[in-house]
Amino acid sequence: MNDTTAYILALNCGSSSLKFSLFGLETLKKHLTGIIRRIGQSESNFDIEVPGEGLVYSSNTSIDSIASAVRITMDWFKSNAQYPIIAIGHRIVQGGPCHRQPEIIDDFLLQTIKQFVYLAPNHLPDEIAAIRYCKTAIPDITQVACFDTGFHKDLPDYAAYYPLPVNYREEGLIRYGYHGLSYEYVLNRLITKDPDVKNKKIVIAHLGSGVSMTAVKGGQSIETTMGISPMGGLMMGTRPGDLDPGVPLFLLKKMRMPAAKVESLLNQQSGLKGIAGISDMEELIEKEELEPRAKEALTMFCYQARKAIGSLAAALNGLDMLVFTGGIGENAPVIRKRICKELKFLGIRLSKKSNSNSSKTISSAKSKVKVLVVKTDEEAMLAHHTRDLLQIKTSQKH
Asked: What is the pLDDT confidence band of residue 64, given thresholds at 50, 70 and 90?
């Protein structure tokens, strides 16, 4: 088999979008990329393009759920038989303490993942539904789970554990960290260009609808902002980030909210949306001059990001490199500028011209800390891990 006879499909289910890419089995060359945006809204956008060549398919329709988006995607591939898919790699947000490394999906693993839906209710139900539909669409397909927590599996104990009675650790009450596939891709890119990056103290800021940062030292994650769930850490599109433990107690006891309503509030109605009624960063930037709540939301977002960078620099005992990635990190120069403006005490200074152009290096010549923008590619990591497991599976048969 080669790139023209066998392909790997990488499926990346978000909270309101579905991204996918098709890779050749042998070379992992990317042949197609696709995205379905605005899922659950009145009009969704479905685009597929060939890298470097442009769109090969585009439609606007109403898609009510991630599960429906997966079905539509798989139907498109079935109607385009020139792309025989032999394996699918899935980004899985959470697999619990015993499942951090990529694994071939079987019934036992699927049942295990289901047990942790309560930790990632915005993601896991859709990811499980996607796995099941793909199995129905292509019954003999090999499916691989790549866990977003894997990058942080070697956090030191003092960073991984909460200051709670130790018996709770055995129940899985630990800090997992997330966005691991994005961090893994970004770090690999940096090391490929400069192997000495392994010796650098780095903060990687993944800023998108979900937001987190991680501190990397010796090529490993030593601290990260998200904890047991993707709700923790920094303010996000619809999630609040870290809260005083008294906040949910206030909602439960004072406001007499049912637990399910608290969960919905914290996952879907907080963050940027909670402050301004809008979760889209581009729209908030456009409206901030006229709408005080939009301005408040952006101010709070950048403030929390600065605090996190300072905290992670302390965990690293210094800072050599700051890397922005994710949809906001890659495409919002004004947000990068506002975050870095008050970080001169760390030696961070941006080049106005480079930052405006979203160049790869956006720090000025006077900056003691190198500041970069690196476009992430979680789907590339999904394909890489899927191919590795396929090769192991094939070798075991022989």
From this structure: confident
For the chain, the structural domain boundaries read 7-147, 195-373
In CATH, the number for domain 7-147 is 3.30.420.40
In one-letter notation, the amino acid at residue 131 is I
Can you tell me the distance from the alpha carbon of 271 to that of 89, in angstroms, rounded to the nearest whole number? 30
Long-range contacts at 130-133 (CB < 8 A, ≥ 24 apart): 130/11, 130/13, 130/66, 130/67, 130/70, 130/90, 131/90, 131/105, 133/67, 133/70, 133/71, 133/74
pTM for the full predicted model: 0.94
Asked if residues 129 and 67 have their Cβ atoms less than 8 Å apart, the reply is yes
For residue 151, give every residue at least 6 positions away whose Cβ sits within 8 Å of its Cβ, in sequence order, or none.
177, 179, 180, 181, 183, 184, 214, 221
State which H helix or E strand residue 374 sits in: none
Tokens representing 300?
A: 């709070």
Residue 3 catalytic?
A: no
pLDDT tens, residue by residue, 145-155: 999 999 999 99
Kindly list the distances between the CA atom of residue 340 and the CA atoms of 114, 233, 329, 344, 352, in Å, as whole numbers in the listed order: 40, 19, 12, 7, 11
Please say whether the beta carbons of 26 and 2 come within 8 A: yes
Beta strand spans in the chain (E): 7-13, 18-24, 30-37, 44-50, 54-61, 85-92, 103-104, 142-147, 201-207, 211-217, 220-224, 321-325, 370-373
Which pair of structure tokens corresponds to residue 167?
A: 């018996």
**305 class by beta-carbon count within 10 Å (0-12 exposed, 13-18 middle, 19+ buried):** buried
pLDDT value, residue 129? 92
Q: Which two tokens stand for residue 359?
A: 């160049």
Q: pLDDT for 180-218, tens place per residue?
A: 999 999 999 999 999 999 999 999 999 999 999 999 999
**Mean of pLDDT over the chain:** 94
| Chain centroid to CA 102 | 16
DSSP secondary structure code for residue 117 in this structure: G
Q: How far apart are CA 384 and CA 377, in angstroms?
A: 11
Domain spanning 195-373: which CATH class is it, in words? alpha beta
**148, 154, 194, 280: which one is catalytic?**
148
The reply to whether domains 7-147 and 195-373 share a CATH topology is yes
Tell me how far apart the alpha carbons of residues 190 and 203 are, in angstroms, rounded to a whole number: 12
Q: Does the structure show a pLDDT above 70 at 2?
A: no
